[in-house]
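May I ask for an example protein's residues together with how it folds?

___
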Amino acid sequence: MKKIKLFGRKATTQGMPAKELTSNKQVADSYVERFIKPKKLRNRQCVYISNDIHVVIARLVRALANAGNEVTLGGYIDTILEEHLQLHKEEINEIYRQRPNDLL
């Protein structure tokens, strides 16, 4: 299996207060606070992701759960996608507005 570099980029503070994160512990704590939270998914949908990504996310979620965090694979993915959509809302809306056909 090929190794995927997911978190190799410099830490970002998008969507966070302007204070600078100075240590790895602060970065990790900030990440856990933003993305690792209990989430009940009531109306679930099935989607497909690559096996490589699934393995990485499953390992992370297992490690977080073993550390006492209440998190599920689906809840984690849902939270990540929710933030992505919020952070890129303007770009997504612009792409949608440029399309000649209505969504419905």
Notes: The CA atoms of residues 5 and 56 lie 10 Å apart. The chain has one domain: 26-98. The longest helix spans residues 51-66.
